[in-house]
Amino acid sequence: MKLSIKLFATIRLDTGLKVVDVNIDKPINIIEMLKLVSDILDYDLIEKLTENNKIIPGVIILLNGVNIHHINKLETKITEDAIISVFPAAAGG
Amino acid sequence: MAYMGTILRINLSDKSIKKEEFPKELAKKYLGGRGLASKILFDEVDPKVDALSPENKLIFATGPLTLTNAPTGGRYMVITKGPLTGGIASSNSGGFFGAKFKATGYDMIIFEGKSENPTYLFIDDSTVELRDASHVWGKGTEDTTDILVADSGHKTANVACIGPAGENLSNFAAIINEKTRAAGRTGVGAVMGSKNLKAVVVASGKFKTPIDNPEGFKAAVKKNREMLKENGVTGEGLPALGTKVLDNIINEIGAYPSYNFQKSQFEYTDEISGEALVEKGYLVKNVACYACPIACGRKTALPDGAKGEGPEYEVGWSYGASCGVKDLIAITRAGYMCNNLGFDAISAGATIATAMELYEKGIIKKEDIGSGPELKFGSSEAIIYYTKLMASREGIGDKMADGAYRLAESFGHSEFAMTVKKQEIPAYDPRVVQGQGLAYATNNRGGDHTRAYLISPEVLGLPEKIDAQENKGKASWVKTFQELTAIIDSAGLCIFTSFAMGAPDYLALIKNSTGFSWDEAEMMKAGERIWNLEREFNLRAGIDPSQDTLPDRLLKDEIKTGPGKGNVNRLDTMLPNYYELRGWSKDGIPTDEKLKELEIV
Ligand code: SF4
């Protein structure tokens, strides 16, 4: 399976990367995916996006455009090729 | 307490200047700023008057927390009957003008009548006088500000003024303070222009806001400042990337309208996003309004040396995705131009987008645009050219300066105007964010997101994440947000504080500063009162509830691609519930009982 993880806002500015592509051979959930990408980038996405295994208020993680809050939060399983968009706490208006 | 105790009443026709006692008892019901000024407008102005006639009044108002160190405690509001919607107009601005004005010892200015010649109001600690403005008439807000600051003899004087857009009565002209901060929406600048009032100059002020319970207030301020610092959004996201951090968020969820809402994503978002503004090196630094710990403002500079502020999220969208433009330099420049010409940049960009669609559909013809560049989506040249043309009202710019609705209507195709109550809808597609659609449709000032920012719970997950596509329960969210926002505005604070602060936090600041014995329910009741009073003004002005709606495109045309594919806004499933929760008739009219309960009549 091919996952494209799109990075935004301060994560993009900190890492200098817009997207990270990873290939995996079995389904994983969001938290596992975040650990995997953190290792690849040497950048702690878990700390940036979660607190006590919960999504920090204002953080947005989309699986193919759908907020994982409305799927199964950090336990949401990724079972096929997917685009995951990751935003640290952000807002505007 | 928390009020200076005096209102200025300036009659521009006979040049009289009166100082009146501040209506303390009314403040207990309407708080200040937007709320209290709306009440004064309601009592003194026939809602049916022509917005641009001398019979209309223009009120500059501060809130009890303006000129305090409450976080963002520096806002002022301009309230009048507006020319764009024909209903109550109310616009809120940051920067430093509001706090400086209050420091001269006044809470509010009510302008009446019309000056025979261009004039401006000069205020310092001991002087209030109308002065000749003929030397700055016709000038942009930048030159006007520089000249009037020099004339005042005070380098630190603050100026709120109009540009050519206001002088030429564009329906979406803004009032600009400190060259870059706008009381932007609903055409308040046109009302100022109609009165031949070019500017208000505040030279110096020595007064402080009296606080009822200084110790309690200090503790509340400290707590709220800490909360704002620790919050990921107000402490990190907004300072780092400003409001333009939203470009990619809203695009990724498929709610980023492009090509005048014909699509719901923009393929070039990455090139014009907040991240791109940093990566391309245009961002110089972030800047803050008075007493603001968030500092969401952007000082920017372009490669050719042009400097200014912004673009913010909305301007970046209206001139970018909405016009199909992927040129960040042209978008930034158009934003600078709006500040200098004195335009509301949302309506300006959105009106050009409407013109582009009309042109591409063959409704606006080549002969209508004369020698101007083609009104094609994606044209950087067009957004710059037609922005200028709208300010001078030359050629087709004359019709465009009336706003998207009247432009499209004049060509017999109002269905291409993406407006609510004739005001241009901002940068969120309500087919994806259902509650925001209800908020647009029921907004007392028409197409606008800042009176109930449902994006906060529907997209950003603040204060909690709710499903953007769900319709159930949205009426209640919208009602609460409309009422709390009325309080935040009326208090003199910026709504961005609400990403971290909640009702009890605002209550602590208000109670300790004013000495009101309010509990949370009473505070929210005041918000409800303000909302109903604005509604009643609009009804009397002739805006009937049939205008609580969205353009057909957003109600009937399904989104074709992206995460929002297949959706329309299901307003009809939310609106009856909203009317019911508001205690209005099923036709959307506040009942006599409701108006009595709120002591409006
Ligand atoms: S958050 Fe931004 S707009 Fe609001 S007061 Fe602060 S700097 Fe001004």
Task: Please explain how this structure is put together.
The complex is a heterodimer of chains A (93) and B (601). With 93 residues, chain A is α+β, with helices and mostly antiparallel strands. Chain A has 3 helices and 9 strands, in the order βαββααββββββ. Chain A has a 5-stranded mixed sheet with strand order 2-1-9-6-7. In chain A, strands 3-8 form a two-stranded antiparallel sheet. Chain A has a two-stranded antiparallel sheet with strand order 4-5. In chain A, strand 6 (60-63) and strand 7 (66-67) form a beta hairpin. Chain A starts with a strand and ends in a 6-residue tail after the last strand. Chain B has 26 helices and 17 strands. A 6-stranded mixed sheet of chain B has the order 2-1-6-3-4-5. Chain B is 40% helix and 13% strand. The chains are: A alpha+beta (93), B alpha+beta (601). The A-B interface holds A 6, 8-10, 12-13, 18, 55-60, 62, 64-67, 69-70, 85, 87-93 and B 231-234, 236-238, 240-246, 248-249, 252-254, 270, 274-275, 278-279, 296, 312-314, 449-450, 453, 455-456, 459-465, 467-468, 495-496, 499, 562-564. The structure holds iron/sulfur cluster. Iron/sulfur cluster binds next to loops of chain B.
